[in-house]
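Format notes (please read before filing issues)

Several people have asked whether sequences and structure tokens are stored in separate files. They are not. Every record keeps both together, in the order shown below: the sequence lines, then the token lines. Line labels are part of the format and must not be stripped during preprocessing.
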Amino acid sequence: MNYTTASKRFMALGQPVRLALLSVISECDGTQNVRALTDRLCLRIGRTVEQPTVSHHLACLLKVGLVERHADENEVFYQVRGAGLVLCRDDLTELARGKVEARP
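Then the structure lines:
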């Protein structure tokens, strides 16, 4: 396990708003733009979150490989990057089994 990389992914998931946003994105399957994701996120968590804040959280999730983005002319869409979630799962499984070993 690469501890630095794993800790960055888990830190990104440690923010409740980001975790809720990841859930919203997974339900939309890459079909919603940032404005629509912001609206859905606000409904999910029951409070207002401004679009620039959502963009910041999306950038954090993108940086650690938990989401990916694609552009369509004037809009940007996000979807969950399954491989990033698999890495989180594998790291947790490795820890749970007591097989924590350094790997490149």
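For reference, the curators noted about this record: The chain has a mean pLDDT of 90. The beta strands are 67-72, 75-80.
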